[in-house]
Specification:
Layout lengths: L8 H19 L9 E5 L6 H5 L7 E2 L11 E5 L5 H4 L7 E6 L5 E6 L9 H13 L6 E5 L2 H6 L10 H7 L3 H6 L4 E4 L7 H11 L4 E4 L3 E6 L2 H23 L9 H10 L9
Helix pairs in contact: 4-8
Bound molecules: 1,3-dihydroxyacetonephosphate (13P) and zinc ion (ZN).
Length: 273
C-alpha cells in the first residue's frame, strides 16, 4: 500500500526517529497508557503533492491563532494513543497535519484520520514561537518523568529557581547540557489554552518546562534532542531522590563550583539557535 512515507525517505527517517524515542519513553516508565505527546515540524520535507493532499476530515480548530504556522506541516501523536504502540506503528498512532490559511485550524492529511493529541495547543504555541524567533528547533515533547513529577509535589521546588539550583548541583553534566534550567508552570487543566500560554512564557527562558503535578515539556532540534533535554534533568532528579532515600539531604555542588563550570565551559544564557 502506498503511504505518505513510501516515496519520501528523508521524512521516513524523521518518523523512524520519533518511533525510536517513543520506545525509550515507554522503557523509562514515563509513558503510562496514552501519557505524553509529540509534535515535529516536517515542513522542510513537504512537496507540492503534500500541499495538495485532500483533508481526511473537516478542518479542526486549534483554539489559538498562530500566524507563523500558516501552511506548515507537523507530525503529531494521536490523542489517546500509546507511545509503546507508536514505537511500532507511528503512522497508525499519529498523523500528518497541515495548518490552514486562517492559522487557527488544521487538516489531517495522512495516513489515517488519527485525531492529534489533546495537548496540541501547547505544542503548536511552542512551534509558533520557534518559527517566530528563527530557531532551528523542530520538535516538542511532553512526557511524564516520574522523579521530576514527584519533585513538583514539593512546594519548595515550585518556588523561584530552587528546582533548577538543586538539579544543577547534583552532577556537572546537568548544568552543561541544561544551562537554561527548568521552568515551572503552576498546575493547570491538561489540554487548556491557559496551560499553552504559561508553557510558552517559561520555554522562552528555560530548556525544559515542568507542569506542576503532571509532566515536562521540552523543545529540541529534533525529537532525540528534546528527549535528551528531559533525560538530563530527570537523571539529576533521580540522583537527588537516591540520596534522599539513603536518609540525607544531598550536599550538592557548591554555588562556587556551579559558577566555575559556567565560566570554564562558557555556557550559553540563551538557546544556541
Ligand atoms: P493525549 O493522549 O491526548 O496525547 O494526552 C496525553 C497526555 O499526557 C495529556 O497531558
Ligand atoms: Zn500529560
Amino acid at each position: 500500500m502506498k503511504t505518505i512515507l513510501s516515496s519520501r525517505p528523508a521524512l521516513k527517517a524523521v518518523i523512524d526517529q520519533i518511533a525510536e524515542v517513543t520506545g525509550y519513553l515507554w522503557q523509562n516508565g514515563w509513558a503510562e497508557r496514552n501519557g505524553g505527546n509529540i509534535t515535529v515540524n516536517i515542513t522542510e520535507f513537504a512537496d507540492a503533492e503534500m500541499a495538495a493532499m485532500p483533508a481526511l476530515v473537516p478542518a479542526i480548530q486549534i483554539g489559538k491563532e498562530l500566524p507563523m504556522l500558516r501552511g506548515k506541516f507537523f507530525y503529531a501523536k494521536g490523542t489517546g494513543k500509546r507511545m509503546r504502540d507508536l514505537a511500532r506503528y507511528p503512522m497508525q498512532n499519529g498523523s500528518i497535519i497541515r495548518i490552514c490559511p486562517d492559522c487557527a485550524s488544521y487538516e489531517i492529511i495522512a495516513d489515517e484520520p488519527v485525531l492529534p493529541t489533546s495537548e496540541l495547543p501547547s505544542h503548536l504555541a511552542l512551534q509558533n514561537y520557534l518559527l517566530q524567533t528563527g530557531s532551528c528547533y523542530k520538535a516538542t515533547l511532553h512526557t511524564h518523568p516520574i522523579e521530576l513529577v514527584a519533585m513538583s509535589h514539593i512546594r519548595r521546588f515550585l518556588e523561584g529557581d530552587e528546582l533548577t539550583r538543586v538539579l544543577w548541583s547534583m552532577i556537572p553534566e546537568t548544568l552543561a547540557f541544561a544551562p537554561l534550567g527548568i521552568g515551572i508552570v503552576p498546575y493547570k487543566i491538561p489540554g487548556s489554552i491557559e496551560l499553552a500560554d504559561a508553557t510558552l512564557e517559561q520555554i522562552k527562558t528555560h530548556d525544559v518546562v515542568l507542569w506542576e503535578k503532571h509532566g515536562t515539556v521540552a523543545v529540541g532540534t529534533d525529537i532525540m534532542d528534546a528527549f535528551d533535554q528531559t533525560d538530563v534533568l530527570c537523571k539529576a532528579a533521580k540522583i537527588y531522590l537516591s540520596a534522599r532515600a539513603m536518609g540525607s539531604e544531598p550536599e550538592g555542588m557548591t554555588d562556587e563550583a556551579i559558577k566555575e563550570i559556567q565560566q570554564v565551559f562558557n555556557l550559553p544564557k540563551a538557546r544556541p539557535c
